[in-house]
Amino acid sequence: MTAIPEHAQHEAVLAGTVTAVPLGQRPPSGPIAILPHPADTAMWAVQAAGGVLGPLSDATRGLIWLSYGRADELRAALDDNPGIGWVQLPWAGVDAFSDLLAEQDRPGLLWTSAKGAYAQPVAEHAFTLTLALLRVLPKRARALSWSTLPEGRSLYGRHVVIIGAGGIALELIRLLEPFGTTVTVVRRSEQPVAGAARTVQTSALHEVLPDADVVVVAAALTKDTRHLIGAPELALMNRNANLVNVGRGPLIDTDALVAALAAGSIAGAALDVTEPEPLPDGHPLWTEPRCLITPHSADTPEMTAPLLAERIRLNVLAFLGDGRFVGVVDPQRGY
């Protein structure tokens, strides 16, 4: 079996929010099933924590779901095995399971995800895309001749607005610190975020956009955040501002973004996620010179496998006794 790297263990603890579930509210421990297809790292994680693996049956009490979709199959597994008290999902975002989460929201069933576990690689990617836009690399990469036009801006001292306050945002703030940036975080609650010069609620988004040099979208996708960045928000951004999305494609209104880039209303956009996804051949964003697209590759399987395994290990420990679950999902909020 594959051992979990030390850095992965460190990240899983720091980036994920630990929730201590009271003894009377913890799911009953018992055999754990891994579906649809068991992976070596997941099996290692369960066994390393002292868990007992078994096939899905009436005796199953924990379920580790390793598919990034197939919600109907997961629904059937839960309906057929009502004794399951804990489900671990593989993604940081759980929008693919939002309807199922709401349907299955009941006492005795606890959901956890990988939120926060992949913070380092995704924040690193967001940081990379930010530098690429400021240094006009989308244009440079497409160039066929030497340019004599001086273009490009430094990250030092810029105002960066980060939408979202999860593990990605926290890690990105750490990466930005040496550049002397001023960071504003936009989040659902008004609780201040460590390292940010300012924290505002989502209702104040329009107030902070005009002064942003870079806007990084790293929020969860819910019914309330769909098209959080649309035509009105893009119109508020200044012409030198850049937009980065490492959250979910539908957080940005694609048609509005296409129009804003074509009009030169913003300087550029870098997207690791799109709507639709995958972005079809021939879509205008592919040929937009101000746009850089990466194919949802901020966290590759090679990066995430050990991180998810460590998240599983910690949550199996919680399931078996200490109740300190990491990445607990609120089924009604959808994250």
From TrEMBL:
InterPro entries: D-isomer_2-hydroxyacid_DH (IPR050223), D-isomer_DH_NAD-bd (IPR006140), NAD(P)-bd_dom_sf (IPR036291)
Residue ranges of domain D-isomer specific 2-hydroxyacid dehydrogenase NAD-binding in the record: 139-298
Coiled-coil boundaries: none
Claim: Oxidoreductase is one of the keywords in the record: yes
Gene3D superfamilies: NAD(P)-binding Rossmann-like Domain (3.40.50.720)
Keywords, in A-Z order: NAD, Oxidoreductase
PANTHER family listed in its UniProt record: 2-HYDROXYACID DEHYDROGENASE YGL185C-RELATED, 2-HYDROXYACID DEHYDROGENASE-RELATED
Identification of the protein by name: Hydroxyacid dehydrogenase
Naturally occurring in which organism (per UniProt): Cryobacterium glucosi
Lineage: Bacteria, Bacillati, Actinomycetota, Actinomycetes, Micrococcales
